[in-house]
From TrEMBL:
SUPFAM superfamilies: beta-lactamase/transpeptidase-like
Record keywords, A-Z: Hydrolase, Signal
Gene source species: Chryseobacterium lactis
A Pfam entry, by short name: Beta-lactamase
Name of the featured protein: Serine hydrolase
Beta-lactamase-related domain location: 44-342
Signal sequence range: 1-22
Coiled coil spans: none
GO MF annotation, one: hydrolase activity
InterPro entries given in the database record: AmpC-like, Beta-lactam-related, Beta-lactam/transpept-like
Length: 362
């Protein structure tokens, strides 16, 4: 009887010791991440951001920093909605692959099939648009952009704005990050689906995945928990520059939360939206005409962290910056969203991923 009690006591001691050790480990990890983020987002009276870390779908870290609205003195919360800028491209790329899966298009189709009078459209394919290898002029580098920045532009008019500009290079000749290509992809999504880009993304992705706090951006709609965007000037902060979201369109006009972006990442991993073959197209490296491989798939940069392959993408739009990193082998996802384009989450997010890798290996 005494021996049984002794064994029970030893088991309980071991359990509590392991529990305390895990808790201590968790606190150390949290302090490391807090310290890392605070270097850029530590001022509680400035615009801030939200960061989330998940491993195997389980949230390890989720915190908000700074203010969601300076004028109303509202503290940031983890539920805040941000514009995600070019992370929109992930959704546009997956929408194209969904349409291919339905047999409505092929990524090797020339874009002349969908825009008959597009210059050199017989030589530029959907694949070229997805991989930033089309050579068409990036509209964000055009001086005349300011003439349309606040106008409501239909997708066709937006394509017309840049399509007759001189090309930068022949299709497939080089990789050069390009917003225009993703605007053309949005136009193709509308042409093929018979629906607006906004509705297509809402019905086929947001609703299906349960991303109930994600939207096509609007300055007119009432969006609960919206974080307002800011710029930093010499004399302090100012409200973000107002643009028409029909201009960045399918290259950068979506809004989301860190929680919804985790749902997005899990949906991709579980093949909820795409079958494995289509999913693989998004996450493989491709080659230029000369056989040289480049580090971009469809909507994601394909790089490495500590020598381990990752998938990542950032975003920058007036008043906001974003960054997401996913390490498939370790199932680690890190997402950082900022409501000032003066605070970049890019390197912080990558460094959080490195710290999390180290934690996993212990």
């Amino acid at each position: 009887m005494i021996i049984k009690k002794l064994i029970t006591v030893l088991i309980l001691l071991a359990f509590f010791s392991n529990t305390m050790s895990a808790q201590q480990h968790s606190k150390t990890y949290e302090k490391k991440i807090d310290s890392l983020i605070s270097t850029e987002f530590g001022n509680i009276n400035e615009p801030g951001g939200v960061f989330l870390v998940a491993k195997n779908g389980k949230i390890l870290y989720r915190k908000a920093f700074g203010k969601a609205n300076l004028e109303l003195d509202v503290n940031m919360s983890p539920e805040q909605v941000f514009q995600i800028g070019s992370m929109t491209k992930q959704f546009t790329a997956v929408a194209i692959l969904m349409l291919e899966q339905q047999g409505k298009l092929n990524v090797n189709d020339p874009i002349s099939k969908y825009s008959k009078d597009y210059p050199n459209g017989d030589q530029i394919t959907i694949h070229h648009l997805l991989t930033h290898t089309s050579g068409i002029k990036d509209f964000t580098k055009m001086k005349s952009l300011s003439t349309i920045a606040q106008k409501e532009m239909k997708p066709e008019a937006m394509v017309d704005f840049f399509k007759n500009e001189p090309v930068d290079f022949s299709p497939g000749e080089k990789f050069d990050y390009n917003n225009s290509g993703y605007v053309v992809l949005g136009y193709i999504i509308e042409f093929v689906s018979g629906d607006t880009y906004e509705n297509f993304i809402q019905k086929n992705i947001f609703d299906k995945v349960g991303m109930s706090h994600s939207y096509y951006a609007s300055d007119r709609k009432i969006i609960p928990k919206r974080a307002y965007g800011y710029h930093k000037k010499e004399n302090g902060f100012v409200n973000k520059t107002v643009i028409s979201f029909s201009v960045p369109f399918s290259s950068g006009s979506l809004m989301s939360t860190v929680d919804d972006m985790l749902k997005w990442q899990q949906a991709l991993g579980q093949n909820i939206l795409l079958n494995p073959a289509e999913t693989q197209k998004a996450f493989q490296k491709y080659k230029l005409n000369n056989g040289e491989e480049f580090t971009y798939g469809y909507g994601w940069h394909l790089k490495e962290i500590n020598g381990i392959p990752d998938r990542e993408h950032g975003g920058s739009v007036f008043g906001f910056k974003s960054m997401g990193v996913y390490i498939p082998v370790e199932d680690i996802y890190v997402i950082g969203l900022s409501n000032c384009d003066c605070h970049s989450p890019t390197e912080i997010t990558r460094n959080i991923a490195k710290i999390t890798q180290a934690l996993v290996k212990k």
